[in-house]
Amino acid sequence: MTTPWNLLDLDAALRAAWAADTSSPHYRSQWTPDNPAWGHCDLTALVVNDVFGGDLVVGEVHREGRQYGYHWWNRLPSGVELDLTREQFRQGEVISAARTVERPPGRPAHRWEDYLLLRTRVAARLGELPEPA
Questions:
Q1: What are phi and psi of 130, to 5 degrees?
Q2: What is residue 102's three-state secondary structure?
Q3: Whether 66 contacts 59, CB under 8 Å
Q4: CA distance 14 to 101
Q5: Helices 112-126 and 7-17, packing angle to 10 deg
Q6: How many CA atoms lie within 13 A of 17 on its CB side?
Q7: What is the DSSP string of 1-49?
Q8: Rounded distance between C-alpha atoms, residue 57 and residue 81, angstroms
Q9: Where exactly are the structural domains of the chain?
Q10: How confident is residue 106, by pLDDT bands cut at 50, 70 and 90?
Q11: For the stretch 26-60, what's the b/e string if a residue is b when 16 or more beta carbons lie within 10 angstroms of its beta carbon?
């Protein structure tokens, strides 16, 4: 897949697009501009996958010995792992049990409207994005 953008362009567009209304509903009330990546890992991983392809990776998030959620990131076709939202974890969280997951075809099962909103904001900065594979 060839794109007119580079990773820095995509990273800047995503950071400009993140907001409370696209953060995970489970964590939306905790979102602040001081931690804009909060609750955006799943949608960010999908948009990165839309643009650069590769694999989706998911792991368990643990804090103080208890699991409280999941974290998503990307493995690019080159094999490099890319996590644009890792910075959201600031309280000693540990990510474990990472596994590659196949992206189902079509629309995401969860958070479709949030995904479309984030994609629209990113496309407003970059131009039309490739359709999901």
A1: -65, 150
A2: coil
A3: no
A4: 22
A5: 120
A6: 27
A7: ---S--HHHHHHHHHHH--GGGS-TTTGGG--TTSTTTT-HHHHHHHHH
A8: 9
A9: 7-126
A10: confident
A11: eeeeebeeeebbbbbbbbbbbbbbbbbbbbbbbbe
Give the strand order in the sheet containing 81-82. 81-82, 66-75, 55-63, 94-101
Closest alpha carbon to 85 in 116, 45, 30: 45
User: How far, CA to CA in Å, does 107 sit from each of 20, 28, 68?
Assistant: 22, 22, 26
Counting residues of the chain whose pLDDT is more than 90, the rounded percentage is 72
The C-alpha atoms of residue 98 and residue 119 are separated, in whole angstroms, by 25
Check whether 1 has a pLDDT greater than 50: no
Under DSSP, is residue 83 helix (H, G, I), strand (E, B) or coil?
Answer: coil
Per-residue model confidence as pLDDT tens digits over 16-37: 999 999 999 988 999 999 999 9
- Looking up tokens 């489970």, which residue turns up? 26
